[in-house]
Fold this protein.
Amino acid sequence: MTRWTLRALGLDVVPSLRPLTYPGRPATGPALLTGPELLPLTPGPVPLGDWRVDGTDGPPLDPALAALGRESADRRHPVLAVGSNASPAQLAHKFAATGLSAVVPLVPVRVRGVAVGCSGHIGRYGYVAAAPYAAPGARTTLVAGWLDGRQLAVVDATEFNYRRILLPGDRFPVTLPSGERLRGAYVYVSKWGVLTGPPGGGPPRPGGGDQGALLATLLAGSARLRALLGPGPRDWVERAAADPQRGEEGTRILAEEGWVERTVGLPPYDPAAPGALTYGDLRPL
């Protein structure tokens, strides 16, 4: 099989290590992340496990996963990434830090009714991360990662400012490049809500763009944030990452000055929900 390293593809920058690059570069087409490499997946009018790895002459995905000693697609959990979890480098770094395999199918999918905003908090790496919110009529492309059970537990643990919820497919359709429409998929919703436009009102602020520009706008709009984290975006991420209390204070300022909308219109987190559903559970009947 042809092998493509993340470095050769220009996808090796880890946002958690270089905060102003957040959210990082996502997978732009269906692919199998193996850790340091990203192998292309060829969709077909078949389930994900039968898509071909590395061209039409390559093996189907499920046998390729089995050869790596990993779970088949049907036993994995589809999770939509709105921020850096769409970055192969971020995922590989996250799993390597816990000693887990970074073998993950990554598939850009079409999602209706969901848009990407900015979470109403400052994260531990200093950046303001992305967060989803309900937007009737929106059509958004998000990268879905098919995580095995241990990978899902690690991502749950690292996303402690978020709660994983199941988006029902009847309200928020998720469509694969093959045309297959899932009966649901998971997404992480911020506990802090999303940032709005002008403080005290306006629609949610678009997320997933230039992190430096976002931080510059927030600094320009708040004397308290400038005093705490300024004067510029690089100062912001360095100060917030070095001193968690500064990040916490900045998060309080965002709320107190009216930058944050708490209601995002997505299904609520249900701590009593049964175990995570798999692609096999969520495929069309």
